[in-house]
Amino acid sequence: MLSPEGESAIVRNIAVSKEKFERTKP
Q: Keywords, A to Z (predicted)?
């Protein structure tokens, strides 16, 4: 089980990755 802060860090990481992916799309 992840700690809340660890989980939020992962969620933020996914959000950043998704944002980068969206930005690189033509």
A: Elongation factor, Protein biosynthesis
* pTM reported for the whole predicted model: 0.57
Name every residue whose Cβ is closer than 8 Å to that of residue 2 and which is 6 or more positions away in sequence: 10
Give the distance, in angstroms, between the CA of residue 3 and the centroid of all CA atoms in the same chain.
16
Domain locations along the chain: 1-26
- Work out the number of other CB atoms within 10 angstroms of the CB of residue 1: 4
CA-CA distance, 26 to 17, in Å (whole number)? 16
